[in-house]
Amino acid sequence: MSSHTQDLLADPKCSLTIASKEFKGAADGRVNLMGEVTLLKQDEKEAVKAAYLAKHPGAFWVDFGDFNWFRMDEI
Question: What angle is formed at CA 64 by the lines to CA 32 and CA 48, rounded to 5 degrees?
Answer without folding.
Answer: 50
